Amino acid sequence: MSQVLDETLSPRQVRRDAESLATWGRDWTRSFEVAPSAVVFPESVDDVVALVRLANAEGLALVPSGGRTGLSGGAVAGNGEVVVSFDRMNGILDFEPADRLVTCQPGVVTQTLQDFARDRGLFYPVDFASAGSSQIGGNIATNAGGIKVIRYGLTRDWIAGLKVVTGAGEVLELNRGLVKNATGYDLRHLFIGSEGTLGFVVEADVLLTALPEPQLVMVLGVERFRDLLAVLGQFQSALTLSAFEFFSELALQKVTAHRELARPLSGAAPFYALLEFDESALDAATGAFERCVAEGWVSDGVLSQSETQAENLWQLREGISESIAGYTPYKNDLAVRISRMPEFLDEVDALVQQSYPDFEVCWYGHIGDGNLHLNILKPGDMSQADFFAKCHEISPRIFTAVAARGGSISAEHGVGLLKRDFLDYSRSPAELAAMRGIKAVLDPNGVMNPGKMLPPA
Ligand code: 2HG
Ligand code: ZN
Predict the structure, then answer these.
(1) If you measure from the C-alpha of residue 37 to the centroid of ligand 2, how many angstroms do you get, rounded to a whole number?
(2) Buried (b) or exposed (e) across 196-227, using 16+ Cβ within 10 A?
């Protein structure tokens, strides 16, 4: 069927060799079978329009593909789909200093945009461990969050305009870089976080901001999870934080072993908080630290003395995901309101300990914005299928605890395939019906990333 692609694109834009299919057919998840029929590399908006029209005419399914760093299977092609890679639409098209706006193609790597901004004395603040390979188009498709959300918000907050090709093959220019625009439904925001189910992002107007001061990093040993919230409150009342992350002792053990890093403190603590803040806030931060120690929340702490040391401390947090990847972990990416986190964590921790007494449970995440990553590690002697089946049995209980607090079963990684069948824990039947209605308008023949995000009706 996908032979018709060769009449639409030039031969250099179509690949069907086994290695390419295996590479572009998957993201960072390793638990899904991969079986695309072809990988294509559009080089222009016209190519994308031609592909979508062809898909509608011939009944092809299209899977958008960025840097393939996703953790929910949103970019996995398991059913003969055509993978549409944006690797060749990776140019920065325009920069307007007065607007602090960069116009990018979707294949621009996140770090390339960060560097572009920095070279002009400006800052693109959305950041996470995979910034060196993830692409702006994928960041938009998942509304990527990461480590600076507490200060700078999500990808959504930095997108001032989008050009998209809908699943019907229409080109829409959404918001055109405007700050103010009160002309009805903001379709731009529908595409942000839509996981490639409505159409392709083919251009984005991305906002930049002023470069912050040099940053300092502190790592604190914290006795109880509940105390992390007290520490957060104490620091936030004294200064503006750029990041407030946490990880457990097990997470620290995994990352220090994997990356051969030094432990941050002389002793061990059940939890660690990693804070980042402006250099000029050092006195305020020292005062907050002393109050936290006096309250008994914090046992010990370390402050970065150089940029290199700050980077090394960050590795303790940012390297965790990679350091546990070898355990094919069962991933949960949960969010509840910050105020509900301590009792939520207590409940989920108890559930996990009862249900998986033999599994290692690795906690870390972005406590400053209510996002917990709960990774359950596969024992070496268990098959992947058995492990995932066991985890899926327990998931409903964890998701019930999320739903009871009005939380989210996917804070930042997206729904994809991994969380699709659990979406009703976070979205009501009426919401799901509205989502399906929107999909039907923008992608009437269902050519865009079928089977992802929305559970079968
Ligand atoms: C992080 O915060 C990433 O490190 C990955 O979102 C989280 O692998 C994970 O569970
Ligand atoms: Zn994260």
Answers:
(1) 32
(2) bbbbbbbbbbbbbeeebeebbbbbbbbebbeb
Instruction: Give 397-413 pLDDT, tens digit per residue.
Output: 999 999 999 999 999 99
Last residue of a domain, one of 303, 321, 339: 321
Closest residue by CA, ligand 1 atom 3: 321
Report how far residue 148's alpha carbon sits from residue 143's, in angstroms, rounded to the nearest whole number. 14
DSSP assignment string, 187-220? HHHHHTT-TTSSEEEEEEEEE-EEPPPPEEEEEE
Range of the domain at 65: 2-85
Instruction: Look at ligand 1, atom 2, and give the residue with the nearest C-alpha.
Output: 365
Task: For residues 371 and 337, state if they share a domain.
Answer: yes
pLDDT digits over 204-239, tens only? 999 999 999 999 999 999 999 889 999 999 999 999
Protein residue closest via CA to atom 5 of ligand 1 = 321
* Nearest-atom index, ligand 1, CA of 320: 4
- What is the model's pLDDT at position 1? 56
Question: pTM for this one?
Answer: 0.97
**Atom number of ligand 1 nearest to Cα 324:** 8
Nearest residue by C-alpha to atom 9 in ligand 1: 321
Could you tell me if residue 439 is inside a domain?
no
Does residue 77 sit in the same domain as residue 11? yes
User: Look-up: residue for tokens 């020292």?
Assistant: 286
- Quote the number of domains for the chain: 4
Q: DSSP 3-state assignment of 326?
A: helix
Q: Which atom of ligand 1 is nearest to the CA of 374?
A: 10
In a domain, 392, yes or no: yes
Per the CB < 8 A criterion, the answer to whether 57 and 445 are in contact is no
Any atom of ligand 1 within 6 Å of the Cβ of 37 = no
Is residue 270 situated within a structural domain?
yes
Do 80 and 158 fall within a single domain? no
Check pocket membership of 321 for ligand 1, CB cut-off 6 A.
yes
> Quick one: pLDDT band at residue 2, thresholds 50, 70, 90?
low
148 lines ligand 1 (CB under 6 A): no
- Ligand 1 center to residue 146 CA distance, Å? 8
Q: Is residue 173 helix, strand or coil?
A: strand
Which residues make Cβ contacts (< 8 Å) with residue 438, sequence separation at least 6? 190, 198
pLDDT at position 457 is 84
Nearest CA to ligand 1 atom 8: 321
64: CATH: 3.30.43.10
Which CATH number is 307's domain given?
3.30.70.2190
What is the per-residue pLDDT across 377-404, written as a single tens digit (0 to 9) for each? Answer: 999 999 999 998 988 888 899 999 999 9
Is residue 261 in a domain? yes
Residue-wise pLDDT for 33-70, tens only, equals: 999 999 999 999 999 999 999 999 999 999 999 999 99
